From TrEMBL:
Location in the cell: Cell inner membrane
Organism of provenance: Enterovibrio nigricans DSM 22720
GO cellular component, one term: plasma membrane
Subunit structure, as described in the record: The complex comprises the extracytoplasmic solute receptor protein and the two transmembrane proteins.
Domain Tripartite ATP-independent periplasmic transporters DctQ component: 33-165
Transmembrane segment boundaries: 25-46, 58-75, 96-118, 141-160
Main location: membrane
N-terminal signal peptide: none
Name of the protein this chain belongs to: TRAP transporter small permease protein
Membrane association type: Multi-pass membrane protein
Keyword list, A-Z: Cell inner membrane, Cell membrane, Membrane, Transmembrane, Transmembrane helix, Transport
Record's function text: Part of the tripartite ATP-independent periplasmic (TRAP) transport system.
Amino acid sequence: MDTASPFLIALIRGINRFSDWTGRVVSWFVLAIVMITFVVVVMRYVFNTGSVFMQESILYFHNYVIMLGAGYALLKGAHVRVDIFYRPASDKKKAWVDLFGFLFLLVPTCTFIFYIAWDYVAASWSIMEGSQEAGGVDARYLFKTSILLMPALVLLQGFAEALKSVLTLTGHQGLAKQLEDHDEEHAL
């Protein structure tokens, strides 16, 4: 029987649930994109009118799907890997690759993105930046905030994935696999 820290297991499950919830919420934005796009097309070609607000809102929703869904994609294993080498590897080799990737690729990259974006987003919030277009969405600061949320969400889920790798490397493969299978049960 796998015996690992109940706190560690609860932490991994909590992060996984949060990433899953985030992914489920932003997945509804895709429906909003389709519906708003339909309305914009009908307005343009049937009524010969347009809406800058609606067109910009499509960009906002599209941005949120990509930026806020990145942690969910990591949870579901949807990010790009060199599967030709990764797939046939043993569980321990995969765990080493995942742990190395988290520590030496994901953490530095997300930290760098967060660091360089901080002043940019803070400046936008300081003036409550709005749209550059008349009648547009007057919340550009919310749009830009996703630049900070994306690396935070990816780092959070990456931390959970790294902890699963540690479980595998410390002989708790069954528990790590159970945590993976639990994630699959709650897939969209």
